[in-house]
Amino acid sequence: MDKRDLKKEFLMYTSLNILGMVGLSCYILADTFFVSNGLGINGLTALNLAIPIYSLIRGVGLMLGIGGATKYTIFNSQGKLKRANKIFTTTILISFIFSSNPYRLPISGISIFSINANVSPAPFPKSSFLNTAGAHQGDRS
Q: What is the value of pTM for the model shown?
């Protein structure tokens, strides 16, 4: 692989990552807009408290997944299959521990924040599609 191919490949991967981050930012912006219109100040406050926690959980998951996969691939390509399998098992085990008990791990945010917000339900009218979509499924004669 020469320097030209390496530079092209590097730019391809970085541009895709930047595009993914822009897409996530647009999603968060749209979500913030709709939550603020639908739930008001309390909903917006809850969302702004949840976004950093979501980012932390996502970051830890990406670090475990990418780091574990990289180490597994390195050891597997060197022929150290026992070590590669140990890395794989350890990564799966750590991921399971972080995801299985959100009430005791501070990474979940539940043990960090204890918020009793007065958030009212979304202001949908009674005849909206969301409230009546499943109402007539059992009424078939």
A: 0.55
